[in-house]
Design goal:
The complex is a heterodimer of chains A (190) and B (251). Chain A is mainly alpha-helical. Chain A has 10 helices and 2 strands; from the N terminus they run αααααββααααα. Classes of the chains: A mainly alpha (190), B mainly alpha (251). The interface between A and B is large, with 66 and 49 residues.
Chain lengths: 190, 251
Amino acid sequence: MQESDHSIVRAVLAGNKDAYGALVRAHSATVFRVAFRIIGDEADAEDIVQEAFLRGYQRLESYQGRSTFGTWIYRIAVNCALNRIGQADIKAEFRHGDESDPREKTVQLAAREADPERVLLSGEISAAQGLAMQRLTPTEKSAFVLRHLEDRSMVEIAEILEIAPNAAKQAVFRAVQKLRRELAPLRGNA
Amino acid sequence: MNHLGDEEMVELYYEEGTSAYEAHLKACRQCSAQYAEFKRSLDAIAEVPMPQRSADYGDRVWANLKPGLIPYQKRTAGWHAWTNWRTAAVVACCAFALAAVFLGGRYWERFATKTTAVASNPQAAQRVVVVVLTDHLDRSERMLVQLEHAASNDPRDNTELQSEARDLLASNRLYRVTASNAGDPEMAGALDHLEGVLAEIANDPDLNAADIERVRRDMNTKGILFEIRVLRSRGSDKENGRRTAKGATIL
């Protein structure tokens, strides 16, 4: 696949624009997956897929083939998602409320004395989890998603986020600490 | 062995810990219980249900993308593609290049001796590196001091700080790798710590006072500032020592 991707890139750079379609088809699902995991919104994740492949095309001359095209476009997608996190409409997606209401995008964090059955409602838990994730910094959130959900090593995370391996490790560590702290009330009742 | 802290448990959970941690877990009931609770809490952070993409998703992405893409120029374009003005431009460029080579040749001998003297002097080259790195450490120190005193809640007030952090982040990465390759763990370690702070500041979409306070607290910026000051004074000492040894003042 790697060799074939490289030959496709050469074809695109030689003027065959349509060849890029094969790369888009091969890697769209992976790019969507990581974008959705970081951004948590389907429509935004789709936008990121478009943006990542557009940027990839525009920068294709800088692709030197040291990594696979899949890894390269993956990095671009993560960076697009990082930039997107900063937009206010996504940051403010969920907020605390008196009750959990997906339409209103509010979530009630359970108190320790709350009814355990209520706490265990999966929608509420995932909403609380979403809220806790939103409170992470972009670097912490991306590092955590890449480690916890995408199963990337610390070295890979450092390369993708363009930070030192130790900084990547610290970002994951801080994310874990914050998430555990935020989700402690749910654990207390579970 | 001491009890396992959160950091060790994170490493263990993601299977990046050492076997010593596992051995300790087997031997220590307290850590074993804490780790079991820690593991449960992280296992519970499950993925939000992933929206499924249909098999033709890639086709749809490509269909949206394709109209906006401009083909790369074919690199093997034939002579027939050349128009008269392009030919004229190439001729003019060639003439200009020839003139530049001729004039450059005339001045070359005059400057060659001086250039060779500087290039063949490793001390001079090293001095340049020290000066450049000292400049980077100076800027980093100023940024960290600024960070210590930043207290504005308005992200616009912190734009300058972020801009400086972004600038420094790129160069810091190069210096860190260079220091690491040159076998200078003290410098590499300090730049590594600094890089974490720079990345946090540079990537924060709307940096406010709470974010800054969090970075200061979580990443011990005062400690990093101290490290940078020590390293900067080390650089200055080197530079001064070299000046004294040579018995001359270098500006």
